[in-house]
């Protein structure tokens, strides 16, 4: 029976009564609510799965996801670096809109604003159990931790696994890296070779404990971000070396989770999404970094290799098996899509950039992307826009690899410059041939789209401040998680 639930408060700690506009529209009966699992890896390249063309990394469990689900070939995250990409996934907003544009370091005084809305908070309105297992990286002060932003449970690292005392590139050594459970550090500098295993064990335990109610699991692996670590069971398993070993252990993790869903007879009521936060950190070389082939460049750039990620969506009996979607879809689309699926009305007092992509996910005939354009921001600078088959780069510098690194050491990089350049991604996904002179009408049209983004979100290259940006959360006094 249709009903509405009036939210009494969005959170006692925040006291933001304005969030009471987030009402449960409840068109879906509780027993019909799908479970949701998002598996989000770290620094994985577009090609680093067998089902996306890897010649030397074997991922049979993820391949089976693709055989039983839907591959998305034109799936974009909202930033080519960690924190910005993660805030976009969880809030459905461009990072520039919500004030986290780059990478947050342990000493950072900013983090996710308590006024922002996460996927976990959306789904809790429908009675979901919620957990994050793995890397958070949206602020390490207590007020920024996941348990203050809709997650019932948290087990993992508050930031990247290289932010620890053994980082050779940090002039002032990092403090010991905390492994957090809830809001308390239970270990420091944990054995990273066991992280993928421990995350997986916690994830399946959470699933089993919540098998009789709808749940949302955000499994954000720390790997394959450097430093790479793998357990003995997968060490030496891949001809690709340590990097391949790490990906193959992540594939094992996916298999364990899918097997648990089948054993509990939850597979036909669970949506699983597999993707990554940004492209490969190419400076570390082939044995310690992924491959973005056939895309250009990788992490930290606005070329396709920095933003475009492998993505697979799996929901047996609901998402059509063995299919491929070549329409543009974004990580930001997951929040509004899940809200629509679960009958939650999103608040009207803010801009949410993501769109409902259920027609794409469900294989609806002739479904097309709901996005007229997607903006490639790096930090506060608008560097490119994709609209349809076309991608226009605005003049900007970028880092490229001259000599790849090896043995867990960075290689040699240099800054190069790209001028105004138009690429036809339908025939040139590697962004090799500038066709701006041949299509001045396309350049003009996308330039007009760019002006809309600059007006809305700003552009440091043009000294423009966006009209619709919101601040991050901020703490004046430095405080750390307990432990």
Notable traits:
alpha/beta; Alkaline Phosphatase, subunit A; 2 domains; eleven-stranded mixed β-sheet; globular
Describe the model.
- The protein has 483 residues and is of the alpha/beta class.
- The chain has two domains: 19-361, 3-Layer(aba) Sandwich (Alkaline Phosphatase, subunit A), CATH 3.40.720.10; 374-465, Arylsulfatase, C-terminal domain, CATH 3.30.1120.10.
- 21% of the residues lie in helices and 21% in strands.
- It has ten helices and 21 strands.
- The protein has helices at residues 60-68, 82-91, 95-98, 119-124, 195-209, 242-263, 304-307, 334-342, 358-361, 440-457, and strands spanning 35-41, 70-76, 110-111, 129-134, 153-156, 178-181, 184-188, 215-220, 270-276, 308-314, 323-325, 329-330, 374-378, 381-387, 390-393, 396-403, 412-418, 421-424, 458-459, 464-465, 473-474.
- The strands form five sheets. Strands 1, 2, 4, 5, 6, 7, 8, 9, 10, 11 and 12 form an eleven-stranded mixed sheet that branches.
- Helix 5 packs parallel to helix 6 (242-263).
- 51% of the residues are buried.
């Amino acid at each position: 029976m249709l009903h509405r639930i009036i939210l009494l408060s969005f959170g006692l700690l925040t006291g933001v009564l304005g969030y009471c506009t987030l009402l449960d529209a409840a068109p879906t009966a509780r027993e019909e609510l799908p479970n949701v699992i998002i598996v989000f890896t770290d620094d994985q390249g577009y090609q680093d799965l067998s089902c996306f063309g890897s010649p030397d990394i074997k991922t049979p469990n993820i391949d089976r996801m693709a055989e039983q689900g839907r591959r998305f070939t034109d799936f974009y995250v909202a930033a080519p670096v960690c924190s910005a990409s993660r805030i976009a996934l969880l809030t459905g907003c461009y990072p520039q809109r919500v004030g986290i544009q780059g990478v947050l370091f342990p000493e950072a005084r900013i983090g996710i604003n308590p006024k922002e809305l996460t996927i976990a908070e959306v789904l809790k309105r429908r009675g979901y159990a919620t957990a994050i297992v793995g890397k958070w990286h949206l602020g390490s002060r207590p007020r920024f931790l996941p348990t203050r932003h809709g997650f019932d449970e948290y087990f993992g690292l508050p930031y990247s696994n290289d932010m620890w005392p053994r980082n050779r590139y940090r002039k002032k050594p990092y403090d010991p890296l905390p492994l957090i459970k809830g809001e308390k550090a239970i270990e420091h500098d944990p054995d990273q070779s066991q992280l993928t295993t421990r995350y997986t064990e916690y994830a399946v335990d959470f699933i089993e404990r919540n098998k009789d109610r709808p749940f949302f699991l955000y499994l954000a692996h720390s790997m394959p971000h450097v430093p790479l670590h793998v357990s003995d069971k997968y060490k030496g398993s891949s001809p690709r070396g340590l990097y391949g070993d790490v990906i193959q252990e992540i594939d094992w993790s996916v298999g364990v989770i899918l097997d648990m869903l089948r054993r509990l007879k939850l597979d036909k009521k669970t949506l699983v999404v597999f993707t990554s936060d940004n492209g490969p950190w190419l400076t570390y070389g082939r044995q310690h970094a992924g491959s973005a082939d056939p895309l250009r460049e990788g992490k930290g750039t606005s070329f396709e290799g920095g933003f475009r990620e492998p993505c697979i969506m799996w929901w047996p009996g609901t998402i059509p098996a063995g299919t491929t979607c070549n329409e543009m879809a974004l990580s930001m689309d997951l929040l509004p899509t899940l809200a629509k699926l679960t009958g939650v009305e999103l608040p009207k007092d803010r801009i949410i950039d993501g769109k409902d992509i259920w027609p794409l996910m469900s294989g609806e005939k002739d479904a097309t992307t709901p996005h007229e354009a997607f903006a490639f921001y790096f930090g506060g600078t608008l560097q490119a826009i994709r609209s349809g088959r076309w991608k226009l780069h605005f003049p900007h510098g970028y880092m490229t690899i001259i000599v790849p690194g090896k043995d867990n050491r960075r290689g040699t990089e240099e800054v190069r410059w790209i001028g105004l350049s138009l690429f036809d991604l339908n025939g040139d996904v590697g962004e090799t041939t500038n066709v701006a002179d041949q299509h001045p009408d396309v350049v003009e049209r996308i330039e007009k789209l760019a002006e809309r983004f600059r007006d809305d979100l700003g552009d440091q290259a043009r000294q423009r401040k966006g009209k619709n940006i919101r601040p991050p959360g901020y703490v004046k006094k430095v405080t750390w998680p307990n432990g």
